[in-house]
Amino acid sequence: MKPTLGKLFDDATRLTRGGKLAAATASIQRALRSAASRLDSGVGVALFDAPLRGPQPAGSSTPATRAVDPTVPSDPGAAAGSFETGTYTGASGTRSYRLFVPASVDATGPRRPLIVMLHGCTQSPEDFAAGTRMNEIATEHRMLVLYPEQAARSNSSKCWNWFMPGDQRRGAGEPELLAGMTRHILAARPVDPLRVYVAGLSAGGAMADILGREYPDLYAAVGVHSGLPQGAARDIASAFAAMRNGASPAVSDAAVRTGGTPPAIVFHGDRDGTVHPANGEQVIGAILEGVDDGAGELVASRATSAAAGRSVTHTVHRKRGVAPDAPSVAEHWLVHGTGHAWSGGHPSGSYTDAAGPDASREMVRFFLEHPRQPA
User: Fold this and answer.
1) By the 8 A CB rule, do 203 and 318 touch?
2) Which stretches of the chain drop beneath a pLDDT of 70?
3) pLDDT tens by residue, 137-188
4) CA geometry: angle at 219 spanning 213 and 222, to 5°?
5) Which residues touch 335 (CB under 8 Å, ≥6 apart)?
6) Catalytic residue check, 202
C-alpha cells in the first residue's frame, strides 16, 4: 500500500526537525509526485515548488485546468481600459506585471485608488484578473489594478514565497520587490498615495498579509482570500503544517511583527482542504491583537445569511462606541460549503467558485471605506 500524503508530509516534518534535510526533501518530492498522479480525481492549489494535488471536499469548486485568455474580460466590454504589460527591477530582483488602467482615468486628472492583486500558485495575472473580475469592478470605481507576476525561476509553481524567512520582512526579498513595484506605479501613474491596497489568493493572500503588516505606510488596507497569517511558517515543514491545521502558537508567536496593523478583510471557505480555515481566523486575530490595547476597545457583530447560494457567517469588528455604519477594523467572511476558491469568482479563471458573496466587490467596498490617514 502506498503511504498517504499526510504520512509523507509528517515524515518530512520529522526528518527536518532531526536535521536530515536530504531525506526530508526526498519525502516531500515523493508526496508531490504521488499527489500529481491524482490530477484526474480532483485538484488542489500548490504553495510550493510543484502542484499539491488532492481530493476536494464536497461542495468545493474544481480549479480550471483549461487554458484561459483573460485579456478579454469575462463580460466583454465591461472592463473598458488598457491592460498593459511591464517589468520592474529592484534591489531584490525583477518581476513582470500587468496593469489595468480604466479608460476613464486621465493622466492629468484626479489621483485614483490602486489595488495590488497577488495571484495564487500556478496562476498568471491574466488568469487572476479573469477569475476575480477585478478589472470590471475597477472600471466602475475608476481604480487602477496592478497584477505582479511571480517568476518561475523563483518558484517553479509561481507561488509567492510567504514561508521563507527571507521573504517575510520589510526591506528584503519579495516584500521589498513588491513594495518597490507599487511605488514605481505610484510615481508613474495618477495614483492617490492614501488609497493604495493589496489583496491576494492563497500564497498571494499570505504575501498580501505580509505586505500590509510590513508596509503600513504604503498599503491602507489588506484583503486576504484563503491565505495564511504572517509568521505562519519558517520553512517547508512548518508551511505544510500550517496549511493543514493552521499556524501553531510556537510559530506565530515567534514572528516579530515590525510593522503596523492596517484594516483587513478576510474571506475563507469552511470546506477548504488546501489551506485550513483556521488560518483566516488567525489573520483576523493578529489584526485585532494589534489594535486592541486590552481595555476592551473592540466589539464584534456576527450575522449568518445566504448569499448567491451559499450560507455565510459575516463578522465585523469595530471600535467600541462608534456608529454602526462607521468603518470597521476588520471583517471576516466565512463562506460555508466553499473550498479553496475565490468566492463569487468567474469560471473563466482558475480557482473560483461562482456561488457565494462576491469577494471582489466586498473587498473594493471595504478598501474605499479605509483610506490611509496622512502621516
Assistant:
1) no
2) 1-78, 249-260, 292-296
3) 999 999 999 999 999 999 999 999 999 999 999 999 999 999 999 999 999 9
4) 65
5) 267, 268, 269, 270, 310, 312, 343, 353, 356, 357
6) yes
Spatial separation of the C-alpha atoms in residues 56 and 41, rounded to whole Å = 9
CA distance 132 to 11: 37
Residues with Cβ < 8 Å from 13, sequence gap 6 or more? 24, 237, 238, 240, 241
Q: How far apart are CA 78 and CA 369, in angstroms?
A: 24
Please name which of 323, 335, 337, 327 lies closest in space to residue 367, comparing C-alpha atoms: 327
Query: Can you point out the beta strands (E) in 178-292?
Result: 191-201, 221-225, 264-269
Span 159-168, pLDDT tens digits: 999 999 999 9
- Give me the residues paired with residue 87 across strands: 96
Q: How far from 42 is each of 38, 64, 109, 336, CA to CA, in Å?
A: 7, 11, 48, 20
> What is the spatial distance between Cα 160 and Cα 118, in angstroms, rounded to a whole number?
8
Q: What is the DSSP string of 266-307?
A: EEEETT-SSS-THHHHHHHHHHHHHH--SS--EEEEEEEEEE
Active-site residue, from 92, 124, 202, 360: 202
Closest CA to 321 of 312, 329, 313, 333: 329
User: Residue 372 and residue 193: Cα distance in Å, rounded?
Assistant: 8
Cβ-Cβ contacts under 8 Å for 68 (sequence gap 6 or more): 126, 127, 130, 348, 349, 350
Cell of 291: 489594535
- Report the distance separating Cα 285 and Cα 300, nearest Å: 12
Strand partners, 319: 298
| Measured CA distances, 88 to 97, 151, 182, 272 (Å) | 8, 12, 10, 34
Q: What is the pLDDT of residue 291?
A: 77
Kindly give the pairing relationship between strand 112-118 and strand 144-148.
parallel
